[in-house]
Amino acid sequence: MRHDGTHNKVIVDTAEHFPDPQWSPAGGAIAIVQAEARKDPRSVENIYLISPDGQPIARITDDPSSVANAIEEIRWSPDASMIAFSTGGRIGAEHSDIYMVSADGSTLRRLTYPPAWHGTPRWSPDGKYIAYVSVSGDATALVLVDVSDGQLPERQIPLNMEGEFSWSPTATSVVYASEREENRDIYVFNLVESKEMRLTFDPSLDIEPDWSPDGSRILFRSTRGGAHEIYSMRPDGTGITREVLNPSSGFLMMPFWSTDSERFYFSRSNRGEGTYELWSSETSLACRG
Known about the structure:
By secondary structure, the chain is mostly beta strands. The protein has strands at 22-23, 30-34, 46-50, 56-59, 71-76, 82-87, 98-102, 108-110, 117-123, 129-136, 139-146, 154-158, 165-167, 173-180, 183-190, 195-198, 206-211, 218-222, 229-233, 241-244, 251-257, 263-270, 275-282. The two termini are 30 Å apart.
């Protein structure tokens, strides 16, 4: 569809499972996950590329995990040459791991192994790193893998964090939610200085941060107004502004920015109506900068 929701069309209608379709940054392909035989309990899902009109381009994985777990997330590298993805599984299982594959399917690298749980792969904006969350027992860490030279050295940073996080556009910091003393707030970690800073202090729920591409604002979901709504703030935690008012009993959640940082998108669920919608909104000019 277009960014305003018009001209939407079905491009694939034969698959039963679409966990994470992703546009290529180059614009010529969409990466999707499909299974050839969902009725077979041993079937394994793979990543395929299709054109924007739904025509098949190529299959780029071939049973990468050798197990029947679904592929959970797929993320393109900024230059569209690689895809990082995670395989499914629960914490403590053997199959929650991170891989990366070239966009033509010629090179596949496995980045993680049991027994820890690994998930949420995210490329740095400069394409030098893949970051992911690792959970082993009660210990959680953010792991940075340098993929720039093929040697894949790792840096492991112990952090009390939830799964979702977002890079700063300069690739020098990450923002994430963390539950401490029975309260969930937003924190930022400076990777250069190895320093953490707390951004929100409200006793309400603050989660799902997303850093704008221009670096000026961070979106997040909060219940500080009494309902699940979308807020934004500056990267230092100041200038907190409610971006979207929620008049319903449902949730406004999972906000993310447009590439020009001029508008953002979010999901709306209404428990009473059983609906699930995608919305967009322009940012408040009063809170820019």
